[in-house]
Amino acid sequence: MSLTLRTQIKFTLVVMQEIVKVKESHALIFIFPIWWYSLPAIMKGYIDRIFNFGIAYGGNAGPVVDKIRWIGLSGHPKHKYDKRGYNKMMEHHLNVGISNYIDVQDTHVHLLYNTLGEFEDDDILPEDHQKALLEEAENIGASL
């Protein structure tokens, strides 16, 4: 695959290799721990380095991939996210602020809750909860 840039921006070899890998992909799945209701800094740094002007947005860049799935791993149960709207905030940031900005329309955020296994409901066995989380993650990947 060759990349034609309409800008004078120069990227390192490592960044260019990663850009080529991304552009050759049909879909991206980002799996990450949720830190302070957002992405870890290292993942944000990756996005900043790879989804560059002239590559992922600006001019005639076009979408870098067809689909993006965001899988956030939360130690908290869902009701704590619902209480303050953190889940909606994260969905907007990842789907609109990042994915749609780089012209990827098929984008979904999936938050897997209570991944640390601190159960408030004694009716749920930790093994069953972990199994359900793995099945959910597998289904997300299989749906692509």
Automatic annotation (TrEMBL):
- Matching InterPro entries: Flavodoxin_fold, Flavoprotein-like_sf, NAD(P)H_dehydrogenase_qn
The cross-references to Gene3D superfamilies, in alphabetical order and at most eight, read: 3.40.50.360
Origin: domain of life: Bacteria
Cellular-component GO terms for this entry: cytosol
**SUPFAM superfamilies per UniProt:** Flavoproteins
Pfam families attached to this UniProt entry: Flavodoxin_2
Keywords from the UniProt entry? Oxidoreductase
Record domain Flavodoxin-like fold: where: 17-132
GO MF terms here are:
NAD(P)H dehydrogenase (quinone) activity
Family from the record: Belongs to the NAD(P)H dehydrogenase (quinone) family.
- Indicate what this protein is called per its UniProt record: Flavodoxin-like fold domain-containing protein
Species in which this protein is naturally found? Salicibibacter kimchii
The organism that produces this protein has a lineage beginning with: Bacteria, Bacillati, Bacillota, Bacilli, Bacillales
